[in-house]
Every structure is written in structure tokens, then in C-alpha cells.
Amino acid sequence: MKTYILALDQGTTSSRAILFDRQGRICGSAAAEYPQHFPHPGWVEHNPHDIWNSQLAVARQVLADNHVDSRQIHAIGIANQRETTVVWDRKTGEPIAPAIVWQDRRTADTCDALRADGKAKLIADITGLELDSYFSATKLKWLLDHVPGARERARQGGLAFGTVDSWLIYKLTGRHVTDVSNASRTLLFNIHLMRWDQDLLQLFDIPEQMLPQVVSSSEEVGLTKAALFGAPIAVAGIAGDQQAATFGQACLTPGMVKNTYGTGCFMLMHLGEHPVVSHNRLLTTVGWRVDGATEYLMEGSVFMGGATVQWLRDGLGIIEQSCDVEPLAASVPDSGGVYMVPAFVGLGAPHWDPYARGALVGLSRGSNRGHIARAALEAIAYQSAELMAAMQKDVAASSRDIPLTEVRADGGAARNDLLMQFQADLLGVPVLRPHVTETTALGAAYLAGLAVGFWQTREEVAGQWTCERRFDPAMGADQRGALMDGWARAVGRSKAWAT
User: Fold this and answer.
1) For residue 250, how many other CB atoms are within 10 A of its CB?
2) For 61, what's the count of Cα atoms within 13 Å in the CB-facing half-sphere?
3) Which of 293, 294, 326, 332 has the alpha carbon at shortest distance from 309?
């Protein structure tokens, strides 16, 4: 009887379920989008029931479509959108409010007040993160402050907080846990001592009793309720989506870099077992804990990656499907001097400007749909190039010998050849696209499979990584510098909007 690992990849706009065999090959997949809610400018919400129902439905679908019995599943691995904040009643399991999504900017003023009070360095020293509304702490504080009676219920132990991994595991098993990678994204977790930090809980006025137990990224944490899939299945792998993608890309030694092109773009460098402090507003975050060893990553976050293409489709209506963007962008030789800065929810690293707004500059009478589409694609690459530049500065400033020779790309937009070539040109290093681009799900599968003996060693899973296509830089340094200068001017326009 053939056996599999089932990966649940719960993303910002869709839920997916993928079956992997022992060779790390995809043997079946199912996906479903679910609603996004934007009740006010800068607010982004999900219905937690939509998250759960869509994820359960695709998990059941992939088993049914491929005639796989639950007894053929060795374990489940979970990768999830990070920072998104869910609070539910411990007795009823009902959420007390919509989930506040990582993109949501409603708590920017709370962060401003804390920064003015001199708390940013304390937070960065403990968590490795920027003081920004991107992370969970201010979202959780907002819910406790605005849902009637919530704070008192939380103090009495009646409410549970979790990121999406916690919510899914609670629904699957009844347990209230999170792994170290997700805990490190809350702005409440000490990444040096590997525990919830009392000073930060007090700063944000968060009752500790509502927090989940922190577990490793690769260990059996519970069995699914038998009624869900016909028989219990071990949940044995948990990681935030970007950490999971880094593991799935086999970036397992210091200096290896991956960039995920999803709703946002996330570039992560493996640092090893010792964190490196960023002086260029990047994040130091926990990658995973496996077999008792914690490994760290340096991360740069772009808020609008593939979501920029979705805006072309849903907002401007210049394409019917996301896949239409590449031929439209290729219909012109270049952007014609047009730059798009997709700061629709502010700017992430290295700017961390929640008040920046989208900008489309450099338009002329000859500009057309093709130029706008190309500028949108190029904006994804420009933002990632900024991350790489900041990362290289941090590496140069450290005493660590961390070579940087390539970037491994994954995510939906990594299938766009035009984007990948332009990205290599801007970075000045090769961009490698693997045969399996569903590396977020693959990383979750690897973490689960290692915990239950489906795979034996990290070297075994790293050996399964293969390159499907390599994009080598074909742009001179002068042209690269001129383009980046143009991008910097466009970003300046975007950031000036709020002033």
C-alpha cells in the first residue's frame, strides 16, 4: 500500500492540500479560494470559519480525487499564512471576531505611539522584529480592546489566541499549540530564550493564559478527530509559510537564500544556529526547531507581490486571469519608463512605512496596458532587489562568513519566466527555479515526515531538490544601477503621499 504525507498549505487567499510521496513528488492536489474582506481602508479580514472550511474541504477532496484512504497518510504537515490573528472561545470554539490578516494596517497608530515611547529597540532586541502592525501583538491587543468583554474573558482563561496554525490544529485535534516559527512572528516571543516574554506581554497587555503552548516544528502534536477523515492522522509538522518554503527549498546551510513569490514576496537567508542582528531593517526570525536544535533566518518582507497582479485583474480589469500578465507584459520591450509602486497596504522591508500608498509614475502619452503590466511585474522584482541589497549589507557588516551565490525561487509567480529573468538581472546572481515550486507545502511535508520516520534525515530531503531552470544575470551594472535609481525615485513619491 502506497503511503503519503498530506501537506495543508493555508494561504492568504486560498487553501491547498497536496499529497507527497517518499521522493518528494506531488501525487495530488486540491485548492480553493475563499473570501477576503476589506471593511475599511487599510483593514483586511478573514472569517475563521472560511479558513477552516476551505482547508478541510480541499484536504478531503485531494484524498477522494486520488482514491487515497486516510490510513495511507503517515502524517499531516501544516504551513500557514503568518501573523494573522484569531481569537476564539475555549468552550464553544467560536471565534469572537473576524481574523485580522497580516496585511491589515489598523494598528499603525498603536505602533507609532510605542515607537514614540522608545519601545522599538526593546522589542527588536527580544523578538528580532520591527515594531509594525504587520505582526500579531497589536492585532491581538486591538481585539481585546474593541470586542466587548474580551479582555476580562481572556484574563479568566475563557479565550484562546492563535495564528492560523493554532486555529487549524485546534479544529483538527482539539489541542491549543503553535510552533516556534509561528510564535516568533507574534511580537510576543523571545527568540533567544525561546519562550513567551513577560515584559512584552505586559507592554501589550496580553493575558498569558490565552497563548498557545509552543512546540517544535517537527514533532507529533496530536491526532486528528476520527470523524474528519475516517481515521485519526498524526499532525507532526508545523511552520509558518515562509519558514516552510525555506525548508522545502533545502536552504539548510548558512548563506542559502530563497525568495517566495506569493501574495507577498519573502526573501529568507539561512543563518545557522546563531542569529545575526540586522542594521538595515530586516528581520531575524526563528526558522524551525528540529531534533532540539533551533535555526535562525534573516528575512525581508514585501507586502504586495502576486497580489499586485491580482489588482491588475480585479482592480484595473486589464487582464482576465493572472496568467495573462506575462504575455501582456511581453508585448512591449520594456516598461517605457513606467514604474509602479504597489504600496496598497504600505511598504514592508526595508522601509516599514505603513502610510505609503500605491504610485504609478513615468506615464507618457505612449504608455499602454502592456507598459503598466510590465511595470507591475517589475515592481515585484524591484522590491525583492531592495531586500537583497539590505541583506548583503548586513552580511558584510557581520563577522560571519556567509557566502551568497544564488537565490532559489518558488511560489506562483516564480513560473513567470519574464519576471524571473528580470529578477536575476536586478540581483546580479542566478535565480534557480526548482522542479517542485510548491515548496511551502513541501517544507511542511518534510517537517512532518521527518518526525514520523517517513524520511530519515535532512540530507535525504535536501537530496531531492532539483533545478528545473536557471536564470543567469544578463544586465550590466550601469543599467542595473540606473533602473534601481528610477525605482528609488518612484518609492519616494509613494512615501511622500502621506505627507
Assistant:
1) 24
2) 15
3) 326
- HEC assignment per residue over the chain: CCCEEEEEEECCCEEEEEEECCCCCEEEEEEEECCCECCCCCCCEECHHHHHHHHHHHHHHHHHHCCCCHHHEEEEEEEECCCCEEEEECCCCCECCCEECCCCCCCHHHHHHHHHCCCHHHHHHHHCCCCCCCCHHHHHHHHHHHCCCHHHHHHCCCEEEECHHHHHHHHHHCCCEEEHHHHCCCCCEECCCCEECHHHHHHHCCCHHHCCEEECCEEEEEECCHHHHCCCCEEEEEEEHHHHHHHHCCCCCCCCEEEEECCCEEEEEEEECCCCCCCCCCEEEEEEEECCEEEEEEEEEECCCHHHHHHHHHHHCCCCCHHHHHHHHCCCCCCCCCEEECCECEECCCCCECCCCCEEECCCCCCCHHHHHHHHHHHHHHHHHHHHHHHHHHHHHCCCCCCCCCEEEECHHHHCHHHHHHHHHHHCCCEEEECCCCHHHHHHHHHHHHHHCCCCCHHHHHCCCCEEEEECCCCCHHHHHHHHHHHHHHHHHHHHCCC
Write phi, then psi, for 123 (nearest 5 degrees): -65, -45
**How confident is residue 264, by pLDDT bands cut at 50, 70 and 90?**
confident
Report which of 104, 31, 13 is spatially closest to residue 313, judged by C-alpha positions: 13
* Distance of alpha carbon 63 from alpha carbon 35, whole angstroms: 24
Task: Dig out the grid coordinates for 200 from the structure.
Answer: 512584552
Between CA 485 and CA 472 the distance in angstroms is 22
* Distance set, CA 439 to CA 10, 151, 260, 261, 388 (Å): 13, 39, 9, 11, 20
For residues 436 and 465, give the distance between their C-alpha atoms in angstroms, rounded to a whole number.
8
Read off the pLDDT of each residue in 52-68 and give the average, rounded to a whole number. 97
Q: Are strands 339-341 and 359-361 parallel, antiparallel or unpaired?
A: antiparallel
Q: Does residue 183 register a pLDDT over 80?
A: yes
- Rounded alpha-carbon distances, angstroms, from residue 297 to 112, 130, 265, 440, 487: 26, 15, 15, 16, 27
What pLDDT score was predicted for residue 305? Answer: 85
**Could you give the domains of the chain?**
4-241 (3.30.420.40)
Q: Residue 396 burial (CB < 10 Å; 0-12/13-18/19+)?
A: exposed
Whose grid coordinates read 508585448?
A: 331
With contact defined as beta carbons under 8 Å apart, do 221 and 215 qualify?
Answer: yes
The pLDDT tens digits for 210-258 are 999 999 999 999 999 999 999 999 999 999 999 999 999 999 988 899 9
Q: Is 309 exposed, middle or buried (0-12, 13-18, 19+ CB in 10 A)?
A: buried
